[in-house]
Amino acid sequence: MKFSKYTLIALNAAKAGAEELLKYYDKTVNVEYKGETDPVTLADRNSQKTVIKVIKSVFPDHGVIAEEDGVSETEKSYCWIIDPLDGTVNFVHGIPMFCVSVGLKYKDEIISGVIFSPVTKEVFVAEKGKGAFLNGKKIRVSKEDKLIRSLAVTGFPYYMRKRPARVMKNFSNIALKTQGVRRLGSAALDLAYVACGRFEFFWEEGLKPWDIAAGELIVKEAGGIVSDYKGKGKYFSDMTMLASNNGNIHKQVLNIINEKR
After folding, report:
1. Which residue, 65, 100, 201, 240, could crosslink 229 as a Cys pair with Cβ 3.0–4.6 Å?
2. CB atoms within 10 A of CB 2
3. Against a cut of 0.85, is the pTM above it?
């Protein structure tokens, strides 16, 4: 597949960020906390600097939204949305489920997305209208259409201890009606795994744009469906997301999420 210059730069930037992370992985790193359980490390910050440097060297006038240190330039038509280390808790514990996520938004639409998993060496790439790929091979979502045979994946927001009711209700109700539920600790990888058929669906609340920008495009280009908890396309502003493999599963999970009890 011949990608645009935007996607190629996203690939280069994500690869450079991943190489930076591997310098620190499974080594002693100083951990700071943005909240009670929300860590940040030198690896996060240096990966982010590296990713932005690669992008800005080619597109100096583009905007950037990135997780660490309040980087936000949202007024530009082209805006890069970056998570330099998605899965920081895993990273600091030596668990290999983490990644770099780079998405490019043009006006109100994501047009390129890359998720790079440094330890597993899996690279997920999508460009609007060109499909989704894993290490160069085209991927598609699962064909499973029965909820009871579906394997789901989710994550817990950092505010769960203060407001656990909806999170735990959804977790319990979905776990009882599916084959099972997994929690990897990286929303970007969760979405990538839905895109390649390892999971039938992903749901989570408390999400930020950098968690899901690349992943939402990868799921869509792999034939999946993405919405907020109301079935609409407001997941960036509502900070809720359901990504699934087909309309049947999507509708059933939305019904569970929106149950009153």
Report:
1. 240
2. 7
3. yes
